[in-house]
Design goal:
Helix content is about 35%, strand content about 25%. It contains two helices and eleven strands. A six-stranded mixed β-sheet has the order 2-11-10-5-6-7, with no helix packed on it. The N terminus is likely disordered. Belongs to the myelin P0 protein family.
Length: about 210
């Protein structure tokens, strides 16, 4: 029995670390921003382990139409390192909080050339196995109305029309019922008056007396 318990303990101790060495990384899906503005690109992660002092965050950027990615930011050992030579020189700022598993960055003074895909990777040793997460950035002169807003507006208009139709329908039914009731009362009153006048105009025939034989 003790041998079985010891074997089970060894198996559990051998399996659990393998299951908890994974890390899940999260970013947004797509971000829209105005030309010349600043934007925060969020990155966080989930790990079964406590936040390690050796936590790291890395950001890469792939321009639209390109297959190659470039490194623009790296955080390790409590220090943030930004790209000082590439397209984001002096425009990237670390605004995250590693202690809260936040590896967000701020990109300043956006340009049309910044359109592309930003990928965040995080490590929380010993949890180091995970799939990086990506967010696409689109820079516009004016931010377009998103499809969800348009869909919501259409649904609202349709629902409003349906409510209006229902209200008009029941209002018409009420008016028709009221009209029918008024006509019925009027007709009944007219018949009653005609009957009363007929009784007043009717006079009994004179009585004729005949002598007895």
């Amino acid at each position: 029995m003790l041998t079985f318990v010891a074997l089970a303990s060894v198996l559990l101790l051998g399996i659990v670390p393998e299951q908890t060495e994974a890390i899940a990384i999260y970013t947004g899906w797509e971000r829209h921003a105005l030309l010349g503005s600043d934007i925060r690109l969020s990155c966080s992660f989930f790990s079964w382990r406590l936040t390690s002092d050796d936590v790291t965050f890395s950001w890469t950027y792939r321009p639209d139409g390109s297959r190659d990615s470039i490194s623009i930011f790296h955080y390790t050992s409590g220090q943030a390192y930004v790209d000082n030579k590439g397209p984001f020189r002096d425009r990237v700022e670390f605004v995250g909080n590693p202690g809260k598993r936040d590896g967000s960055i701020l990109i300043k003074n956006l340009d049309y050339n910044d359109n592309g895909t930003f990928t965040c990777d995080a490590k929380n040793p010993p949890d180091i196995v995970g799939r990086p997460s990506s967010v696409r950035l689109l820079v516009f002169e004016t931010v377009p109305i998103q499809a969800g807003v348009i869909t919501g507006a259409i649904i609202g208009v349709v629902l409003g029309l349906l409510v209006l139709i229902v209200v008009i329908y029941y209002l018409m039914r009420f008016l028709v019922a009221r009209r029918v009731f008024s006509l019925s009362v009027s007709k009944h009153g007219k018949k009653k008056r005609e009957g009363s006048q007929a009784r007043q105009l009717w006079t009994p025939p004179p009585l004729t007396c005949y002598p007895l034989p």
